[in-house]
TrEMBL record:
Ranges of biased composition (kind: Basic and acidic residues): 1-12
TM region(s), chain numbering: none
Domain of life per record: Bacteria
Protein name: Substrate-binding domain-containing protein
Coiled coil as UniProt keyword: no
Boundaries of every HTH lacI-type domain copy: 24-78
GO molecular function: DNA-binding transcription factor activity; transcription cis-regulatory region binding
InterPro entries in the cross-refs: HTH_LacI, LacI/GalR-like_sensor, Lambda_DNA-bd_dom_sf, Peripla_BP_I
Organism expressing this protein natively: Pelagibius litoralis
Region spans: Disordered: 1-26
UniProt entry keywords in alphabetical sequence: DNA-binding, Repressor, Transcription, Transcription regulation
């Protein structure tokens, strides 16, 4: 590396691409910054303490030299890629777009990088796990209502830490962070009964989805009479068809709880445009996840909200702990839901609200299921 004089001092100069000289190394950065080479390594790997003053010097030296750390080479040495596979299957749905945004930020803040695997509805999620593991990821976060119960186990069997998010699988050895779906379902049932409804319908997601099963179980817990159930498959079209099936049956419901907002939107359109009914007056409809579209005036959907930020933060924290210590016991955390009130559902009289005009968070029994 060439040198030049500045104010009587000799300093390193970034190599010129035209000269073909070697690229600057961490050793060069350390010399220019006046710190140890190990401090440079810690600064760029986010592994270990570096004082703010030293970090500032290292960053300035790296910029001056045009130094770019080789993440792949570092991974070969440390046996850590700092990559986390993020598996999602519902990016057409704004709630999961929000989840991805929050996950990416939380991973970056923890020194990891997200490697996104978006699985089209026509493809098998289990079959894609081999591709995920081929990238030598340090861990995997899976967030999809369509996630099978088998997929996380494939990661575990390969020795790769895995956390499911907003989805609980039956395997108790898999760590997870999710909304308290059963408690939230119970809250919805109590809310609709207090509004004077007596005939209930539930639009379910997928048979293999614990998310849908737990929401339905909580809903049933609160009701004196079991709801009529129709399958919606976690899609708009499925919700539309399911609502028509329920409403055209022998005992049409006067209140419908949908396991997701996208199905609730399909149900609302079926009620309005196919049957000429007024949501919130003729039939109340409640969704789940409080997606951005739920607040659109065309839907104005009452929905259970789950914090994408809090879910993402805890998922990353748990995964980071498992990466550092693979022998840690699996963790499962359940966060309370809150009912956001809009015009699609009748408001009961004297119903307790929080300071923002929403139904207080569900505090029902938290189930590890």
């Amino acid at each position: 590396m060439s040198r030049k004089k500045e104010d009587g001092k000799e300093t390193a100069r970034a190599p010129s691409a035209k000269t073909g000289r070697k690229q600057p190394t961490s050793y060069d950065v350390a010399r220019l910054a006046g710190v140890s080479q190990s401090a440079v390594s810690r600064a760029f790997s986010n592994n270990g303490y570096v004082s703010p003053e030293a970090r500032k010097k290292i960053t300035a030296a790296a910029v001056q030299l045009g130094f770019r750390p080789n993440a792949l080479a570092r991974g070969l040495i440390t046996r850590r890629s700092r990559l986390v596979g993020v598996v999602v299957a519902d990016l057409y749905y704004s709630f999961y777009v929000s989840i991805l945004h929050q996950l990416s930020g939380a991973l970056r803040a923890s020194g990891f990088h997200a490697l996104l695997f978006s699985i089209p509805s026509s493809e098998n999620i289990d079959a894609m796990i081999t591709d995920v593991l081929a990238y030598q990821v340090d861990g995997v976060i899976m967030s999809s209502a369509r996630l099978s119960s088998r997929a996380p186990g494939l990661c575990r069997d390969a020795g790769v830490p895995v956390v499911t998010m907003n989805r609980i699988v039956d395997d108790s050895s898999i760590s997870a962070v999710a909304t308290d779906n059963r408690g939230a379902g119970r809250m919805v049932g109590e809310f609709l009964q207090a509004g004077g409804h007596r005939r209930f319908g539930f639009i379910a997601g997928l048979d293999d989805s614990s998310t849908s099963r737990d929401r339905e179980a909580g809903f049933r817990d609160a009701l004196a009479q079991a709801p009529a159930v129709a399958q919606g498959g976690f899609t708009y079209d499925g919700g539309h068809r399911a609502a028509l099936d329920l409403m055209l049956g022998a005992n049409p419901p006067d209140a419908i709880f949908c396991a997701s907002d996208i199905m609730a939107m399909g149900a609302l359109d079926a009620l309005r445009f196919d049957l000429g009914l007024t949501p919130g007056e003729d039939v109340s409809v409640v969704g789940f996840n409080n997606a951005a579209e739920a607040a659109w005036r065309t839907y104005d959907l009452t929905s259970v909200t789950a914090s994408a930020e809090e879910l993402s933060q805890r998922a990353v924290e748990i995964l980071a702990e498992l990466i550092e210590d693979p022998d840690l016991a699996p963790q499962r955390e359940f966060l309370p839901g809150q009912l956001v009130l809009r015009s699609s559902a009748r408001m009961p009289e004297n119903w307790p609200l929080d300071g923002g005009g929403n139904v207080a968070a569900a505090a029902g029994d938290i189930k590890d299921s």
